[in-house]
Predict the structure.
Amino acid sequence: MKLFKQLKLALAALFLLTALSGCTEQLNDWEQVSPKEKIVIKFSHVVSEDTPKGLAAKRFADLVNHRTGGRVEVQVFPNSTLYRDGEEIQALLSGAVQIIAPSTSKLGDMFPRWQIFDMPYAFESFADINRSMEGKIGSSLYEDLEKGGIQPLAFWYNGFKQITSRERPIIHPNDFKDLRFRIMINSAILEEQFSRLGAIPVKMQFNEVYQALSSSAIDGQENTTSNIVSQKFYETQPYLTVSNHGFLGYSVITSQDFWSELPPDVRNIIQETMKEVSLWEMEQASIINNRDMEKLRNSGKIEIHVQTPVEREEWKNALKSVDKKLIEIAGPDLAGEIINKTGQ
Ligand code: LMR
């Protein structure tokens, strides 16, 4: 009887331990890892923590740290605290950081074909983008990265971009005339988009946008609601148009040099965790952007206009000739895939 009681107690303790650890893949104990054995992964990004990318980076770090029992330590540096736009890719290739997640537009200098995601009105939904990434388009883009010494780890979503402005509501293409709009660095397609609309595109690093809006150095910008809220852009931008005209997403990458030196079991944990976190991230992206749209509506600080189907057609017509730029940049085959989609 006493033995039975002891057995029951031991089983209960085992159950509790498993439940607390939350997973069974843990390699060994944090305490047992000597500093020499530890693999440090610096994950640098430019947005706030309370955004789809910020939260996913943190979740990925916590899970990998836990699952490797501390053998791997992923350290996340948000808000451009370590490297800013324009510095991140070099920092990755030189080994100063090990993971970055730039928006696809920011890969545009080194890997021009990634600019397909900047094409206005090319993608309808996350499911549409997911299909493209899992098919011919995705494999061509990943091939480009691999040829450039980069190991792709995942594709993360933020959402569809909206327009904010200071001078006037932006309803028709004419409303853009002569206004200065910030665009992300490295994208000739975004430059073309705003030029076609009659605006003046201004390339600018993400961490400089708030200041530029506050000082009226620029009149407006395009972004997802999660970035508009977390960066407080709405404080100086009284007008927002829900246009969903473009997509903002991220390529989560490491360098092939770093990747090839990792032990296979660590690579495996990173890959599996990245897969799991990416599914979670895609769900969170919609939740957070919807939540932040509600925050904007409730803030009383910004007038929100939802684009009508007729206005959407007006914008699409004004942007038709961006197709030519895409063919120049991505070549007729890949550009053709995207242009056929926009014509639908
Ligand atoms: C931007 O520069 O507006 C975005 O790419 C920032 C980000 O990483 O979401």
